[in-house]
Fold each of these.
Amino acid sequence: MALNIISNYAANVAHRNLTASDTMATRSLAKLSSGTRVVSARDDAASMAIGARLNATTESLKTATVNVNQANSMLQIADGGMATIDNILVRMKTLAVQASSGNLSDTERGFLNDEFVQLRNEIDRIASSTNFNGIQLLGDGGDVALEFGDLASGAGGAALVPATGFDGFAITDNNYWATDANSNTVTDNNFTVEINELASGQIIMTVSSTIDGAADRSQSIDVSDYASGGTTAISAGENATLNFDELGLSFTVNTNFSATVTEVGAGTNGSTDFGSDTAFGAASIDSTDNTVTMAADNGQQLQQTVDFQVGAGNTANDRLAIEFTAVDSETLGSGSNGTQDSLADLTANAIDTAANAQSAVEVVTRAIDDLQRARANIGTYQNRLDFAGQNLASTQENTESARSTLLDLDVASEMTNFTSKQILVQSGVAMLAQANQMPQNLLRLLQG
């Protein structure tokens, strides 16, 4: 071909090939540094799309495995609670059998009955308090709230205000206030506060509870010393706490409480008692409006089923519904069809006579059977979750392998390719240098 000064065709060819070699070497380097065969869609659009879906599935399966482990933890907590209840039932049957014997007097049976009733209450406490992250496992929860306000709100308790000495109230035993056998939740549970002067001159504060709309129990505290000038009088700006443990309540009172106690003590024959006076004190407060009701927290109810996501999709097969059975005194003993007497039906005189004790033996025996059915149900789901976890592990492994086949880089092969591209780049650089030297030959002609 002709030699000319203006154009250097050989250098252009060398430069084009060098650029191509450098581009391929750069792409190869990108793959080696990232460890993936498909860095961008230009490498393999189909594999990138499939790989992205497989990668999302793999990560979802990892989360599903965590869900399975959490479900197993939940069931383990439920099983642990049932194991404790089982021990209690064994003890209750022992007491019932002992009380059935004719060699005991009613006095001894009374001792046994007290323990029997307390153990039944403990079953309810365990069933109420056993939960996982706020989800009830063995029975309805014990969370309740105070429905407190003024007369305009219809909630009542207008007399229990800072002006009469009451700064606040707290529920210290939710399980007690959650007790409710009817369908009205806990809104028919309430307590009233009275402060009365006795004939002896003592000032007594009495709190009475109502459960299911019926009077339940009351507790009294001598507050005589809280009167102004008394040994426990409350100074301005200070507070005191009155605990009514039997009712699961505590009251925070201020200096006005001392004034209220003093006002009650200044009356004659209870003429200014708090809780009966419609014009109490200088403020003429209607102290008969002294009732505070309870409000249910429905989030603490036992759910019949809890759905766990154990798959990566959005189908019924990707979820596992775990059923929970209540194991409180209302349920245990009622039998598989729920028509027989339960532990709660034994009332407070469960084993105070030989006849009652003999009936209690049958009820506790059924309760043990009911508990074992509920516990076996938990065990079934635990085994099922174990197999679900094994399947997730296998699926995750195979999905990861499929994604790896599509996207992961064969380092040995790509390193060989990169070495080839490096040689081409080095060769291109050398040849471009040679091509740039070719115009120098024309100088010899010009110098001739």
Amino acid sequence: MPGERTGPVAGVVLAAGTSTRMGENKLLFELEGEPAVRRAVARATAAALDPVIVVLGHEADRILPALAGLGCRSVLNPDYARGINSSLKCGIAALPTAAVAAVVLLADMPFVTAEMIATLVKRYRATTAPLVISDYAGVNAPPMLYDRTLLGELQAMEGEGCGKQVVKRHRTEASVVAWPASALADFDLPEDYQRMRALLPAG
């Protein structure tokens, strides 16, 4: 209905993982002169997501200081060791009732920009689609925007890939925004991080 999409769109930044393959907490690694997690959350806030909820878990006490002054809200996922789905559900549960939709982001995708996030929101407001999907040359990955009507499904899904299950179920109703395949990159291994540092400004 007209007017229903003028309310706030929230952000859920997933930052609870254990960085097992990296060997240490990758979200504290420096990219462009600041910790990767701070850089990701700052882009979510710059895109005018409101509120921005950061889901913490592993080494939350070390991550929190890196978020100082950003105006985000952090929530702790006590079950973070169970995987990303538990963090997604934790973030969705923390959303305010005023939010008409939520953009789900990962803290370890350095090439996702504030402009990309804002484009998803703009597309959402301009359509009636309950889902706005990021497509990287045929690969669907975050950030993804879910209308409030889909949040209950995200909470109810079991097994791996709750977000992907909801995307698959509503794929024909979704609006798709295309991005370059290069923007999909994340960093799980030391060599990934070194490659990204070489591609990004020093800060």
Amino acid sequence: MDALSLGGLAEAHLGEAVSAPSGRSAATVFGGADHVLRQTMIAMRAGAALAEHESPGEATLQVLRGRVRLTAGTAAVEGGAGDLLVIPASRHAVEALEPSVLLLTVGKRQ
């Protein structure tokens, strides 16, 4: 059985995101090629974005810190710390409205 400190990891990645040219830092915290479920921590400095992209399967974003905007077409929803955003199956984008840390959970299509 394993345990991971998301708080400590969030601090480290937020620090990296601030100085990264992309304004982001990410790491897979669970799962990968041999798993159906994958969880990735994404830290973003204010104003950084994940450009519009396809969803690889069923997915959610849990906002651990900060505030973000999830957009799909003309629809948008904002979420803050403690919120869980359901990612639509359509093309979508994410923008950090303030320094933010997200836990992306994806169930891969089989």
Amino acid sequence: MIKTKLEFICNKCNASHLKWVGQCTNCKSWNSLTELTVPKNKSKISSLDDLQSSKIQNLFSVKTKNKSRITTGSKELDRTLGGGLVKGSIVLIGGSPGIGKSTLILQTVAFINRKDKTLYVSGEESIEQITERAIRLGVNSDILLLSETYLEKIIELAKKIKPKVMVIDSIQTMATDLSDSAPGSTSQVRDCAAQFTQFAKKTNCILLMIGHVTKDGALAGPRILEHMVDTVLYFEGDPSGRYRVIRAVKNRFGTINEISIFAMQENGLKQITNPSAIFLSNQNKPSSGSMITVIREATRPIIIEIQALVDHASEHVKRVCLGLDYNRLTMQLAVLHKHGGIATYNKDVFINIVGGIKVNETASDLSIIFAIVSSIKNIIIPKTWIVFGEVGLTGEIRPVYNALERLKEAKKHGFKLAIIPYANKPKKDLKDFKIIAVEDLYQALQYMLKNSITIKK
């Protein structure tokens, strides 16, 4: 027996709805929906059956060639993607509400639409709302818009107009006949993503999917959603702040953990070409508890400032860190006590990474300890210093990768002295740049205490 389903069709614009509503979401007409019973398995077969058929090939008979890419109009975003958008790829973009996902995508498709046909499918906003945002952003490209949540109808229209790039905003609002559950459920997200992926691969269409995130920051829906797509981009940063960091946590066509940085302005997102400048505080008066280091995000060295505040604890000891792993901080405080002779068991310790960036690599260990000691001893570390190195549990300063590139980045920004692991000491000295190579934490702290400025109380 063929299964049937109820569908509600608008008498004015023929828009399809999964349930009855008083006002049509497409043409805004009131009481215009008519109930219609349709075969449920009919659209399951017709949505993808007329696409190009697949064939089996031998491995050595396949001729490899460089994937052609399309630029997004932003060098920063292109860098994160590995050089641009690859034809036939699926990019999933996640982030907190209001952080700028739709804004970035609208700017991107507006640039691409100058040469190639694009289709913006929105299941959350009406066409009028998208148009208002485009006017506010100054978009002057005539993008094709579609307000629809029914997957089979979207694919049917996409096969007719054949867009080079198609946007799905968002995947959690889409619904398909393959699942009986409500839109946004695990099965609906999985089945919709699978059909969109199959469509993109067979038509060589670039698919940009926007995804919701949970309160923990992970993409909503099944974990298999991230496995299906080629690239996963995450928006980082405070939605109420100015800067946005886009990180590639998965990329089949480029480097993972590559980041691009944007500033939110009235006319949209503007790319930041020199990110090291925004992660340093602008205070003119030097103060204790501040240390500069060089981290590496995929292929890019970035200079950041680490700030520490250590104060006597009133009752319960507090350990607060923003942009840093809590367990890493606890371990560093234990190493500082054991091998540096400085205890913090009766003190509150607060750590902040300026600019809101998240630091994951161990090269920041030594600079964090320097910032903590600077706050405890109330001393000022010279602004021309830069420090990096991993601190082991036995107090040794372990080497980090790409040390020479970090030193060149520091020298380019005007730093004069670097305290680094002994194993990272370059064979040739850098001109007008002093390098202090240390083997253990005690040696590093002794040099810092002797050459820093003590603040008189």
